Amino acid sequence: MITRDFFEELFVLEMTNNHLGNLDRGLEIVRQHSRIVRFNNVRAAIKLQFRCLESFVHKDFRDRSDIRYIRRVTETRLSKQDYATLVQAIRKSGCIPMATPFDEKSVDWCVEFDMPVIKIASADSTDWMLLEKIASTKKPVIVSIGGTSQKDVDDMVMFFENRNIPLAINHCIAAYPHEDAECELNQIDYLRNRYPSHTIGYSSHEHKNWANSIVIAHGKGARTFERHIDIDTDGVTIAPYSSLPYQIDVWFKAFNNTKVYCGTSGTQRKIPLARETAFLDSYVRGVYAAADLSAGHRLHEEDIYMAIPLLKGQISCRELMLGRFGHTLVNPVQKDQPILIDAIDTPYMEDENLRQTIYSRGLDPASPPNA
């Protein structure tokens, strides 16, 4: 069963404008970009746009080339067999096949081609008949919510929650392209707080520097990312919101470098680096005798002082306990000499691991001074 974890660190690479309806161009996009995916060791889906022209565009308007968005749909038309060829190529490339269906017939194709996840475009996030059809597949869903009102997003999220369908929600600016100042990445904070049970993602349409936005988006908690892709061939003008293979490589590397900076866990305390511990230990004060002290003496504040360096085997300010639960000396200690762990009555003496830790830290008192 696919769960929320499926969306974690998933990259969705959408073929811009359905690769102009050219099957060979689409196959070359898959080939070039899947290589970049493998080189960067990330998990990526390559996403198609499924549109059944006969059901998506009214018959009286299919020849209206003067209407830009209808012309765009008709000029990028692919046959069902073309889609099947592309899905097979995506699978063979090692990427996950994915699609955005724009009509109910296209949802049937998602089922027929066994697509593991379905994407819902911002424009369709309130198309309830289409959402019902998509929900009937029981497949996990990623939905972009560019331009969608809060109430509509709440209703859509509840719709999928009531049907127990895994859902990721993409912050998205539905302007193609948009400026850096229009990214509104603080919306990721809003979505994480409002929908804590769902993976939050970022669908990116900037046209200048999207390496910066993925770093910020990841830092804010986005865990799935989407970007349009294309290739520079055949004299085709590349959409400014699309990424060429070398640009996607920069994007992936920015993400991987961000993970290096973020480190291991966000849910539990990390294990300190050995050199981190050694550095901090060099500034920890050790406990020294302020006067000659005899065995059996119970330590009080006036009996000791603390100073650096901390020596191997010496108790430090971290272990020092005075007052009711203070230490009693089991060995005498001369004035200005370090008080060692073996010189006091303490639980540390009985725990060999703790004792060895104290003897392995700090400066070796026998080491010669620096020249």
General shape: elongated
Measured on Cα atoms, how large is the radius of gyration?
Answer: 31 Å
Q: Runs with pLDDT <50, length 5+?
A: none
Strand content bin: 5-15%
Our measurement of the CA-to-CA distance between the termini, rounded to an integer number of angstroms, reads 67 Å
Number of strands: 11
Order of helices and strands: EHEHHHEHEHEHEHEHEEHHEEHH
Q: Roughly how much helix do the residues carry, as a percent range?
A: 25-40%
Explain this structure:
Helices cover 36% and strands 15% of the residues. The mean pLDDT is 89. The strands form two sheets. Strands 1, 2, 3, 4, 5, 6, 7, 8 and 9 form a nine-stranded parallel beta sheet that branches. A two-stranded antiparallel sheet has the order 10-11. With 371 residues, it is α/β, with parallel strands linked by helices. The protein has helices at residues 23-40, 53-56, 68-75, 80-92, 104-112, 128-136, 150-162, 186-194, 210-220, 245-262, 274-281, 347-350, 352-360, and strands at 10-15, 43-50, 96-101, 118-120, 141-144, 167-172, 199-204, 224-229, 242-243, 286-289, 304-307.
